[in-house]
Design a protein that fits this description.
Layout (H helix, E strand, L loop, with lengths): L2 H8 L2 E3 L10 H28 L6 H28 L5 E3 H34 L4 H4 L2 H18 L1 H8 L16 H7 L5 H34 L4 H34 L5 H26 L1 H15 L1
Antiparallel strand pairs: 1-2
Helix pairs in contact: 2-3, 2-11, 3-4, 3-11, 4-6, 4-7, 4-9, 4-10, 10-11, 11-12
Length: 314
Amino acid sequence: MSASSASIINSSVFILTGFPGLDQYYPWFSIPFSSIYAVVFLGNCLVLHVIRTEQSLHEPMFYFLAMLALTDLCIGLSTVHTVLGVLWGLSQEIGLDACISQTYFVHGLSCTESGVLPAMAFDRFIAICNPLRYTSILTNNRVIHVMVAILMRSALSILPVIIHLKFFHYCRPHILSHSFCLHQDLLRLACSDIRFNSFYALALVIGTLLLDAVLILISYVFILHTVLAIASREERLKSLQTCVSHICAVLVFYIPIIGLTMVHRFGKHLSPSVHVLMGNIYILFPPLMNPIIYSVKTQQIRSRMKKWFSLKMK
């Protein structure tokens, strides 16, 4: 073992990875990545601003949308400094404590977004299947309780594995697979007993992501059953159109997760750059697309934005 490799192993500093073998292109890569982060920040801030300032948008559907936008904004904030730091050539190093903190926020916020999506599906279920009782079922207090429960689940459920990361012995070269820290990446470098983290993480995925997906699917089974019972074709289309933006949000959340899982599981022969690219898509695609989807597909948001921009242009 070389002296430099030994110093990396014995250090509490980890090395972040950009696109292996493409270092000379980092200045060019930084342009689209910087643009994506700018759209993430501006788009989600704009959605939050429109919801906050428009009294007509103060209803359960838009409260959940505001929580989704805030979660996407925080995901961008939790990774922007390391991703752009690598691409801009500022730093590829991150300390163990900072890495564990970033891991907590990345996975915790992902769990939060996963929890918001079934809540939004339930909102659409009540609005379509039981519209007369919508306001009595989804009261402000109940919406607040649901949002707090989602936050508490996300904040507390991953704490045991995050705390364990602090006490592992990392005896392998401290070179991470991405430009941000992930739980499975740190486990790969540990020489301690990682069975608890591995089993707990699997149980957490089943108990959160899979359960949330099942709840979303059940909600849409009932929604479709109700919509197909409507005699008028126009009314059926009108009802389904209120779900389009949410369905798109579900797809942009789950497709990158499935893609990243498939690459890690079956794509070991692929270039490391493919793994890095899929990791960045997993982190950036939902926060980038959600404000675009809701700005285009949600009539209330779209009309408010048009009105807001027209006033600004005068």
